[in-house]
Amino acid sequence: MSDDFLILRPDDVDLSRSPLRRGIDEPTHVLGAFNPGFTRLANGNLLMMVRVAEALSQPVDGDAVRAIRWTADGYALDRHPLDQVDMTDPRQFELRGRGNRILALTSLSWLLPVELSADGRTVIAVHYDKAIEPAARYQDYGVEDARISRIGDLWYMTTCSVSAERHSTTLHVSSDGLHYDLKGIILDHQNKDMLFFEGLVGGKFLALTRPLGECYFAYPPGSEWAGGPSINMAQSPDALHWKPLDTPGLRARAGSTSAMKIGGGTPPILTDAGWLTIYHGVERQATVGIYRSFWALLDRDDPSRVLRMEDAAPLLEASPALTADIAHQMYLPTPVVFTTGMVDAGDHYVVASGEADLACRITLIPKARFL
Question: What is the topology classification, in CATH, of domain 4-370?
Answer without folding.
Answer: Tachylectin-2; Chain A (2.115.10)
